[in-house]
């Protein structure tokens, strides 16, 4: 009989079925017929085996009949972590992919981002991007917003309302020579960023935090980079930016900052490389720069769709992993044309295969490795791996309930398949129809309540 005195009796939720996740040691671990309990705070309080049901139910005080049982073609996996996404650019996703980065920014991005001064436009786009990414299984997103404080705060508010875990950055850029309507001075950038951070922290959202966001070294002055580095240090905040995305920037940045010997060194000299820093792209980093990443604990966000779509470069993830640099995946919407982390997994695998075509010695990434990048890797890249990334007792339950054989879904199951094959099919063929439930910190956020 259930123990009515157990502190968990009323609030504990228990799931039984297949759980698939990655760990530091194992790129893929399948827990077949597992039992997992989630407490009222959304934390995983036990993981056991299905056959221990009676014992567990007594120990933890739940009724065996209250356990949620998964079907054989279902599994739970950790929620996916999008380590780099531009929320305002969702407004033109899937279009404007006909030119390289700098032209693309000038022609499409800056005019669109300047519209986010208007909070009603921001409300519309930010609601759509949060809903879409959650439905796609992104339980954690690291967002760039725009230079506008109020609409950036609105993005934080909307993520909190929908229950998405998020880092939100008000973009800083005081050296944008290209756009008259979309720029800020050094003074404005610092003042608005300070206000943004304190106002967002004052909201005390459980899952939404600010991230210091210099757009990239090419468009930020040295004094601005220094101030932002100090701000992040004083408040122990996350930092995000772009690095070595296109080859041309590597040289331009070195010219702009003659005291630094590399692009990475520019950020390092301005105290912007910490173990809470995530830098997007890094296609054109040298091995010495990767070593500096490892030494500082900074991480990379691999954005393969964007790297290809904007013809920016090809990141060799194997080399990054060999340097023991933390790395996750990013959609980089809208340079990347998909807001799905499943797409990021596929493009990461394609990119790795292209490298092997060019250089047969190159060790191609496996789908298991890409899965780890999208989950645990992303949590490490954002220094959130003590909280999320896989199913460990004490971590928050951020999870996707995947039904590979969902009616009218994109996958036909011809025969009974083992869990690892189900995962492989989902990663390669699945979409949001297969993601029947999404949990963030134990709260079911998909399907949406309204
Ligand atoms: N570098 C500076 N800004 C951006 C941006 O918005 N997208 C991408 N892909 N690269 C950038
Ligand atoms: Fe980007």
Description:
The protein is α/β, with parallel strands linked by helices. Helix content is 37%, strand content 21%. The protein contains 14 helices and 17 strands. It has helices at residues 53-60, 101-114, 119-135, 149-162, 186-202, 222-235, 247-256, 263-269, 287-296, 304-309, 317-322, 341-358, 367-381, 419-429, and strands at 13-21, 29-38, 44-49, 68-69, 74-78, 80-86, 138-144, 165-169, 171-172, 208-214, 238-243, 277-281, 299-302, 326-329, 399-403, 435-440, 443-446. Strands 6, 7, 8, 9, 10, 11, 12, 13 and 14 form a 9-stranded parallel beta sheet that branches. Strand 10, helix 6 and strand 11 (238-243) form a beta-alpha-beta unit. Bound molecules: guanine and fe (iii) ion. Fe (iii) ion (FE) binds next to strand 6.
Task: Supply database-style keywords.
450 residues; alpha/beta; nine-stranded parallel β-sheet; four-stranded mixed β-sheet; globular; binds guanine; binds fe (iii) ion
């Amino acid at each position: 009989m259930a123990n009515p005195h157990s502190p968990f009796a009323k609030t504990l939720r228990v799931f039984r079925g297949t759980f698939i996740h990655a760990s530091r040691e194992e790129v893929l671990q399948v827990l077949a017929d597992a039992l997992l309990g989630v407490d009222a705070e959304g934390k995983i309080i036990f993981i056991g085996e299905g056959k221990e049901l009676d014992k567990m139910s007594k120990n933890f005080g739940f009724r065996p009949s209250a356990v949620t049982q998964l079907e054989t073609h279902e599994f739970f996996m950790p929620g996916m972590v999008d380590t780099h996404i531009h929320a305002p650019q969702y407004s033109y996703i899937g279009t404007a992919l006909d030119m390289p980065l700098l032209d693309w920014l000038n022609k499409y991005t800056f005019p669109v981002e300047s519209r986010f001064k208007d909070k009603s436009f921001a409300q519309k786009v930010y609601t759509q991007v949060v809903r879409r990414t959650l439905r796609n299984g992104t339980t954690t997103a690291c967002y760039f917003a725009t230079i506008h404080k109020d609409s950036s705060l609105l993005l934080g508010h909307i993520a909190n309302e929908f229950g998405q875990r998020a880092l939100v950055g008000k973009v800083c850029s005081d050296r944008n020579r290209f756009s008259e309507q979309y720029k800020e001075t050094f003074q404005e950038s610092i003042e608005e960023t300070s206000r943004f951070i304190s106002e967002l922290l004052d909201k005390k959202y459980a899952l939404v935090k600010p991230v210091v966001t210099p757009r990239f070294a090419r468009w930020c002055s040295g004094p601005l980079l220094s101030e932002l580095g100090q701000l992040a240090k004083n408040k122990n905040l996350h930092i995000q930016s772009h690095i070595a995305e296109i080859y041309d920037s590597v040289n331009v940045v070195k010219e702009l900052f003659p005291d630094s010997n590399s692009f990475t060194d520019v950020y390092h000299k301005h105290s912007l490389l910490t173990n809470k820093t995530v830098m997007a792209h890094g296609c054109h980093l040298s091995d010495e720069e990767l070593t500096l990443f490892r030494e500082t604990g900074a991480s990379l966000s691999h954005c393969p769709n964007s790297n290809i779509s904007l013809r920016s470069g090809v990141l060799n993830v194997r080399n990054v992993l060999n340097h023991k640099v933390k790395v996750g995946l990013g959609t980089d919407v809208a340079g990347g044309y998909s807001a799905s982390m499943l797409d990021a997994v596929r493009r990461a695998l394609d990119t790795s295969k292209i490298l092997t075509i060019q250089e047969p010695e190159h060790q191609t990434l496996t789908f298991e490795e890409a899965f780890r990048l999208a989950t645990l890797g992303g949590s490490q890249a954002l220094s959130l791996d003590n909280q999320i990334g896989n199913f460990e007792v004490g971590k928050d339950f951020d999870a996707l309930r995947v039904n590979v054989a969902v009616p009218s879904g994109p996958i036909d199951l011809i025969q009974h398949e083992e869990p690892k094959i189900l995962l492989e099919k989902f990663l390669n063929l699945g979409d949001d129809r297969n993601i029947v439930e999404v949990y963030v910190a134990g709260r079911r956020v998909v399907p949406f309540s309204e």
